[in-house]
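We give this protein:

***
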Amino acid sequence: MTQANETPTGQSIAMDEVLHYLPHRFPFLMIDRAQDFVAGQSITGIKAVSANEPFFPGHFPGNPVMPGVLLIEAMGQSGALLSSKTMDLRPGEQTIMFLGVEKARFRRPVLPGDYLRIPIKLLKVRRNIHFYEGEVHAEQGLCARCIFSAMAVPSDS
Protein backbone atom coordinates (compact mmCIF):
# COMPACT_ATOMS: atom_id res chain seq x y z
CA MET A 1 0.00 0.00 0.00
CA THR A 2 1.25 3.47 -0.76
CA GLN A 3 2.19 5.72 2.10
CA ALA A 4 0.03 8.74 2.87
CA ASN A 5 2.84 11.21 2.22
CA GLU A 6 4.03 9.94 -1.19
CA THR A 7 4.12 12.36 -4.11
CA PRO A 8 0.99 12.28 -6.29
CA THR A 9 1.49 10.39 -9.55
CA GLY A 10 -1.93 10.32 -11.22
CA GLN A 11 -4.83 12.51 -12.19
CA SER A 12 -6.74 14.76 -9.76
CA ILE A 13 -10.53 14.54 -9.53
CA ALA A 14 -12.51 17.62 -8.43
CA MET A 15 -15.81 17.62 -6.56
CA ASP A 16 -17.91 18.05 -9.73
CA GLU A 17 -16.47 14.82 -11.15
CA VAL A 18 -16.93 13.02 -7.81
CA LEU A 19 -20.60 14.03 -7.96
CA HIS A 20 -20.80 12.85 -11.58
CA TYR A 21 -19.62 9.31 -10.77
CA LEU A 22 -21.00 8.75 -7.25
CA PRO A 23 -24.71 8.79 -6.33
CA HIS A 24 -23.94 9.89 -2.74
CA ARG A 25 -24.90 13.38 -1.60
CA PHE A 26 -24.64 15.37 1.63
CA PRO A 27 -24.73 14.31 4.40
CA PHE A 28 -23.52 10.89 3.23
CA LEU A 29 -20.85 11.87 0.71
CA MET A 30 -17.62 10.92 2.50
CA ILE A 31 -15.03 12.25 0.03
CA ASP A 32 -14.52 15.82 -1.18
CA ARG A 33 -12.19 15.09 -4.08
CA ALA A 34 -9.53 12.61 -5.15
CA GLN A 35 -5.99 12.54 -6.46
CA ASP A 36 -3.45 10.02 -7.71
CA PHE A 37 -6.09 8.38 -9.95
CA VAL A 38 -4.56 5.69 -12.12
CA ALA A 39 -7.25 3.89 -14.15
CA GLY A 40 -7.73 0.29 -13.10
CA GLN A 41 -5.10 0.54 -10.38
CA SER A 42 -5.43 3.10 -7.59
CA ILE A 43 -6.83 6.36 -6.26
CA THR A 44 -6.53 8.51 -3.13
CA GLY A 45 -9.77 9.97 -1.79
CA ILE A 46 -9.56 13.23 0.15
CA LYS A 47 -11.85 14.31 3.00
CA ALA A 48 -11.59 17.43 5.14
CA VAL A 49 -13.41 16.53 8.35
CA SER A 50 -15.37 19.53 9.58
CA ALA A 51 -16.52 20.09 13.15
CA ASN A 52 -19.97 20.57 11.60
CA GLU A 53 -20.28 16.95 10.38
CA PRO A 54 -23.80 15.73 11.28
CA PHE A 55 -22.58 12.65 13.20
CA PHE A 56 -20.34 14.49 15.70
CA PRO A 57 -23.08 15.75 18.10
CA GLY A 58 -24.08 12.16 18.85
CA HIS A 59 -20.72 10.36 18.47
CA PHE A 60 -19.66 11.20 21.18
CA PRO A 61 -21.02 14.28 23.00
CA GLY A 62 -18.07 16.21 24.42
CA ASN A 63 -15.56 13.88 22.71
CA PRO A 64 -16.39 13.87 18.97
CA VAL A 65 -14.99 10.94 16.98
CA MET A 66 -15.81 9.99 13.38
CA PRO A 67 -17.51 6.56 13.46
CA GLY A 68 -15.39 3.68 12.17
CA VAL A 69 -18.15 2.52 9.84
CA LEU A 70 -17.95 5.92 8.13
CA LEU A 71 -14.21 5.45 7.64
CA ILE A 72 -15.05 2.17 5.88
CA GLU A 73 -17.71 4.02 3.86
CA ALA A 74 -15.11 6.63 2.83
CA MET A 75 -12.86 3.81 1.61
CA GLY A 76 -15.81 2.27 -0.23
CA GLN A 77 -16.73 5.54 -1.92
CA SER A 78 -13.12 6.09 -2.97
CA GLY A 79 -13.04 2.57 -4.42
CA ALA A 80 -16.37 3.15 -6.17
CA LEU A 81 -14.96 6.34 -7.71
CA LEU A 82 -11.89 4.42 -8.93
CA SER A 83 -14.02 1.72 -10.56
CA SER A 84 -16.74 4.05 -11.88
CA LYS A 85 -14.23 6.36 -13.55
CA THR A 86 -12.14 3.44 -14.85
CA MET A 87 -15.24 1.87 -16.44
CA ASP A 88 -16.71 5.31 -17.31
CA LEU A 89 -20.06 4.31 -15.80
CA ARG A 90 -22.91 6.58 -16.78
CA PRO A 91 -24.80 8.13 -13.87
CA GLY A 92 -28.14 6.48 -13.29
CA GLU A 93 -27.29 3.32 -15.25
CA GLN A 94 -25.02 1.45 -12.83
CA THR A 95 -23.90 1.91 -9.24
CA ILE A 96 -20.94 0.34 -7.45
CA MET A 97 -22.28 -1.44 -4.34
CA PHE A 98 -20.42 -2.99 -1.36
CA LEU A 99 -20.31 -6.78 -1.21
CA GLY A 100 -18.05 -7.38 1.76
CA VAL A 101 -15.53 -6.00 4.21
CA GLU A 102 -12.70 -8.04 5.72
CA LYS A 103 -9.84 -7.43 8.11
CA ALA A 104 -11.11 -4.00 9.21
CA ARG A 105 -8.74 -2.48 11.75
CA PHE A 106 -8.93 0.88 13.51
CA ARG A 107 -5.71 2.43 14.82
CA ARG A 108 -6.39 6.09 15.68
CA PRO A 109 -9.56 8.16 16.05
CA VAL A 110 -10.53 10.69 13.38
CA LEU A 111 -11.37 14.04 14.98
CA PRO A 112 -12.92 17.33 13.83
CA GLY A 113 -10.38 19.24 11.77
CA ASP A 114 -8.54 16.15 10.48
CA TYR A 115 -7.58 16.06 6.81
CA LEU A 116 -7.96 12.51 5.51
CA ARG A 117 -6.07 10.81 2.72
CA ILE A 118 -7.70 7.57 1.64
CA PRO A 119 -5.40 5.51 -0.62
CA ILE A 120 -7.18 2.65 -2.39
CA LYS A 121 -5.60 -0.07 -4.46
CA LEU A 122 -7.63 -2.29 -6.82
CA LEU A 123 -6.31 -5.78 -6.12
CA LYS A 124 -8.22 -7.68 -8.81
CA VAL A 125 -11.47 -7.95 -10.75
CA ARG A 126 -13.12 -11.33 -11.04
CA ARG A 127 -16.57 -11.85 -12.62
CA ASN A 128 -17.49 -8.19 -12.20
CA ILE A 129 -16.46 -8.27 -8.52
CA HIS A 130 -13.83 -5.68 -7.62
CA PHE A 131 -11.48 -6.41 -4.70
CA TYR A 132 -9.75 -3.48 -2.99
CA GLU A 133 -7.28 -2.70 -0.24
CA GLY A 134 -7.86 0.62 1.51
CA GLU A 135 -6.49 2.80 4.26
CA VAL A 136 -7.43 6.06 5.97
CA HIS A 137 -4.61 8.38 7.05
CA ALA A 138 -4.75 11.64 9.01
CA GLU A 139 -1.86 13.91 9.95
CA GLN A 140 -1.10 11.72 12.99
CA GLY A 141 -0.81 8.53 10.89
CA LEU A 142 -2.82 5.46 9.94
CA CYS A 143 -6.38 5.56 11.29
CA ALA A 144 -8.02 2.55 9.62
CA ARG A 145 -7.55 -0.11 6.97
CA CYS A 146 -9.52 -2.94 5.41
CA ILE A 147 -9.96 -5.23 2.43
CA PHE A 148 -13.32 -4.86 0.69
CA SER A 149 -15.24 -5.91 -2.38
CA ALA A 150 -17.93 -4.35 -4.53
CA MET A 151 -19.60 -4.74 -7.88
CA ALA A 152 -21.47 -2.68 -10.47
CA VAL A 153 -25.22 -3.27 -10.37
CA PRO A 154 -27.97 -1.70 -12.48
CA SER A 155 -29.35 1.49 -10.92
CA ASP A 156 -33.06 1.86 -10.28
CA SER A 157 -34.48 4.62 -12.44
Notes: The first helix runs from residue 15 to 21. Strands lie at 11-13, 33-38, 42-48, 94-106, 115-126, 129-138, 141-154. The chain is about 15% helix and 40% strand. Residues 40 and 86 are 6 Å apart (CA to CA).
